[in-house]
Amino acid sequence: MTNTSKQKGIAAFSFGLSAVLTGIFITNKFWLYSSVNAMIVSGCIAATKWIVQVVLAFVSLREKKWLFISRIATVCLAGSIALFVYYLPAIIPVPVSGFTLFSSSIGLSVVIMIWLYYKAVVKTNLSLKWFGLWLACLAIAIALQLTVVF
Fold this sequence. Notes:
This protein is mostly helical. The protein has one domain (3-149). It is built from 5 helices and no strands. This is EamA domain-containing protein.
């Protein structure tokens, strides 16, 4: 198996599992959303920042595109896994619940993704403009979640 094939597999697996986990997280929080359409929009907003990065990688990066895409796919997956901190009270007592815990889970996910995305950019030896662009996409996604979805 070539490195590119391995990177494509990692990217497909990580983005796919991330989509499933994020979908599960969103649908289990149905009480926060005003409608099923709001849930769908929420998922689409979450996915779009990653789609933008993948498209830009295809357009701008040559030999590093699959390496970078596989790395950001694992960042995406780590962020999706971090959302499940919300379920900690079922295992151990935590001093928060409800919307506070929901917000904290999302906050943790965002912090983890920011840190890991930065590391992916640096490790791939790309310009920090990639990180800045993703931060801009993230800020737009958060603004849209807060204004359009909630």
